Amino acid sequence: LSTPKEGLIITLFAFTCYSSIVLLEYFGLIPYMVFFKLTPYLYKDSQYVITTTLVVGLVFFSIFLTGKSFARGLKQRSAELAQAKKKLEWSNKLEEEVKLQTQELKKSKDQLSILYQISRSISSTLELDNILKVILDFSVKISGANRGSVMLLDEKKNVFFIKAAYNLSEKIIREITFAKDENTIGWVVKNKKPLYIKDLEQDKRFSKKEGIDYKLKQLLMVPIIIEGEVKGVINLDNNTSFTTDTINLLKSFSEQVAVAINNARLYQKIQDSYFEIVKALAQAIEAKDPYTHGHSARVMEYAVSIAQKLGLPEEEIELLRYAAILHDIGKIGVRGIILNNPDGLTNEEYDEIKKHAAIGENIVQPIELLQPIRPLIRHHHEWYNGKGYPYGLSGENIPLGARILAIADAYDAMKSDRPYRRALTEETAIQELKRGSGTQFDSKIVEIFLEILKQNLSEDGPLTN
C-alpha cells in the first residue's frame, strides 16, 4: 500500500461488494450462492444478514487497520533500509577514497624517500663525474628507460654535449652535439620544461643527424636549470610510455641535480684557482733555481701516470698532483748559492739541502686543504732500504705517494741539466732506475714506471706530451 487513503478505499470497496451480494441474495435479486450449505435458510433472516454484514465490516476494518499499521512499519523499514543503503554506499565510497588517499600518500612517501636518498648520494660528493653517474643511474632506474644520457652545455662553444651515458655507443657519445637553439634541445632551452615525445618519427621538433642510428621510439627530456638558464638535459628513451608520475618525479629530481652540479662546478673553480696559486708557488721556486724550470710540472705528470696505472682513486691522484707541484717548495729556504753550485756540494751544504723536505712541510702546514700532502712532501727523499732522509723510513712505512714522487723526481732530475753535470740520456736514466730498484726505490713502482716509459717511447713521443 502506498498510502493509508488507498488502503481505506480498497477496504470499503471490498466491504461494499460483499454487502451488495448478501443484500441482493436476501431480496432474491440474484440466486443464492450457497456460502453456508448446512443452513441455507439463514440468508433469508434479516437479523442474521445485518449481523453478518456488520461482523464482516468489522473484520474488513480490522484488516485495514492491521494492514495500515503493517504498511506504516514496512514503509518505515524501507526508509531505514534505504538510509542504511545510502550510508553503506557512502561508507564504501569513503573507503575507496581513503584507499586512494592512502595509495597517494604511500606514493608520495616513496617518492620523497627516493628523492631523499638520491639527495644524500649527490650531496656526498663534489666530483662532477660522480654526481652525473648517480643522476643517470637514478633516472634510468625509476623510469625503466632502455638508454639515457646527461648532456651539459659547453658555454664557450654554446653547444650541448654528452657528459654521462647509459647503454649508448661510443660513436653517439663522441659525435652527438646540439646547439642551444637546435632540434629538441632548442625547444627545452626555450620553454624550460620537460619534453615528452611519444613518436619521434612523426614529431617535427626532432631531426636525425646523418650517419647516426638512434634506434629511438619515445624520448623524454628533462631540463637542468641553473640560475634561470638550462645548463643541462637528462635524456631518456624507451619502448614503452613514461608515466606522468615518473615525469613529475624526474622534474623534482632535476631541481636537486641543478644544485649539486652548480656546487660541483663552483668547487672545481675554487680547486682550479687554488691549483693555479700552487703552481705559482712552484714557479717561484724554479725562478730561484733556473735549472729546475718545468721540473715540478713534469714530476706531476710522471706521478699522475704512475698513480693511474696503479688504479688509485681520483681523490688520491688529485692530492698527488698538489704534492708533486709543491714537493720542492722547501728549497725556498735553501741558499741560492748552494742550489746553483757548479762544483758539487760539501757535506755541510748537502746537509742544508736535505732540510728542504722538512722546510717544505712546514710551509704547507698552516694550509688546511694541503694537510693530506704533508707526509708526501716530508718523505719524498726516503729510500726503500731505509737509508734516505729526513727520518730513514723504509719499505711500506714510506707513504705510497712519497714512493711514487721519489721515482718521478729522480727520473726528471737525471733527464735535466744541472749546474754540476749535463742531462743523462734516456737509456742511462732507465739503467739508474733499475739499479736503484729495491734499494732507493720501490721495485714494483719502478717496474710500472718503466712500462709507462716504454709505452710512450713506442708511441714516438715523450711522456709529457
What do you see in this structure?
With 465 residues, the protein is an alpha+beta fold. It folds into three domains: 4-82, no CATH class; 125-265, Beta-Lactamase (2-Layer Sandwich); 289-458, Hypothetical protein af1432 (Orthogonal Bundle), CATH 1.10.3210. Helix content is 59%, strand content 9%. The chain is built from 15 helices and six strands. It has helices spanning 4-26, 46-123, 128-143, 170-175, 183-191, 244-288, 295-310, 314-326, 336-339, 347-354, 356-364, 374-378, 400-414, 426-436, 443-458; strands at residues 147-154, 159-166, 177-179, 195-197, 218-226, 229-238. The protein has a six-stranded antiparallel beta sheet, sandwiched between helices. Helix 3 runs antiparallel to helix 6 and helix 7 crosses helix 15. It is rod-shaped. The mean pLDDT is 82.
The total beta strand count reads: 6
Per CATH, the architecture of the largest domain is Orthogonal Bundle
Mean pLDDT: 82
Amount of helix: 55-70%
CATH topology title of the largest domain: Hypothetical protein af1432
Question: Order of strands in the sheet with the most strands?
Answer: 3-2-1-6-5-4
Dominant shape: rod-shaped
Largest sheet: 6 strands, antiparallel
Number of helices: 15
Strand content: 5-15%
Summarize the helix and strand pattern as letters: HHHEEHEHEEEHHHHHHHHHH
Q: What Rg do the Cα atoms give?
A: 49 Å
**Termini separation:** 107 Å
What top-tier CATH class of the largest domain fits best? Mainly Alpha
Uncertain segments: none
Instruction: Domain count, please report it.
Output: 3
Q: How does the helix and strand content classify structurally? A: alpha+beta
What is the CATH superfamily of the largest domain? Hypothetical protein af1432
